[in-house]
Amino acid sequence: MRKLRPAALCRSWLFLEGANEDVLQQAAASGADVLIHELEDFTPPPLRPKARALAAELYAAWRGRGVVVAVRVNPLDQDGMDDLAAVMRGRPDIVALPKVAEPHHVVRLDEAVTRFERDYGIAEGSTSLLPNIEFARGLVQTGAIAMASRRIIGCLMASEDLAADLGAERGSDGLELAYARQRFIVECRAAGVVAVDCPYTWSDAEGVERDTIWARRLGYTAKSLVDPAHAPIVNGVLTPGEEQLRQARRIVAAFEAARTQGFGRVELDGSLLEVPTYSNAKRLIARGEALRAIDRDA
């Protein structure tokens, strides 16, 4: 029986051109945890029938490679219903919806996915949802959107559409989206869903590493991407390294030793360790062990 990687342990979420067969067939070799068959912006309308026709066989091949299978359909008042009618036959693990600005957009998607699950004999409720937040209106309602359906396992923040909606000037340093990314993870964390960071849309490896390190510092454990070559970099940054784990174990050991002596906190390397620091260190160790276990079994 297929063992699906939990959403909380999915680091890299890769968008792929929906009708580009060469790219789609090679995608599983990228190392990305989630492959997203992109039927919206990456697939011009004339190519959407071809992209839909690829879905069933493509998703079966991806599942065979052990990756999480996702598809991003078009908005439901555009081509989205036609997309769903075709791609749901392939039984995707996750359906992503772009340009979600109101909770009712998710409710309508949930209803449509439920209908197709029944029509195609798919276990009802087994398909997860991933709303994409791309406008200011959606950003300020992320918490409500994230709780609009029990199917939601995470929300994904766009970069280009959000910057355009804000009238912001894009730069590879990402300063124009700094507040949005900080607010987004707070909203997702409060709602109890995975926050998938926006993609780095430049090609340089140094830039995506820098951008992912910054996201990690904010608390992100997942990042979307548009270049398959970036998947190993994102996975590397978002997987606790040996030095991080070593330091986390030192924190746990020092704090627990202090507690056995009746102290509420302890100094280590000039930093005062308190309960939140101790708890974070334990979470980091647990995440590192879980990622290594699932990667070992993949």
From TrEMBL:
According to the UniProt entry, what is the EC number of this protein? 4.1.3.34
Domain named HpcH/HpaI aldolase/citrate lyase is located at 11-228
Q: Which UniProt keywords apply?
A: Lyase, Magnesium, Metal-binding
What cofactors does the UniProt entry give for this protein? Answer: Mg(2+)
Q: Which residues form the signal peptide?
A: none
Q: Does the keyword Lyase apply?
A: yes
Describe the family membership recorded for this protein in Swiss-Prot or TrEMBL: Belongs to the HpcH/HpaI aldolase family.
The first-level EC class reads lyase
> InterPro entries recorded for this chain?
Aldolase/citrate-lyase_domain, Citrate_lyase_beta/mcl1/mcl2, Pyrv/PenolPyrv_kinase-like_dom, Pyrv_kinase-like_dom_sf
- This chain's protein is named Citrate lyase subunit beta/citryl-CoA lyase
Molecular function (Gene Ontology), one example: citryl-CoA lyase activity
Q: What organism is this sequence from?
A: Bradyrhizobium elkanii
Report any Pfam family annotated for this entry.
HpcH_HpaI
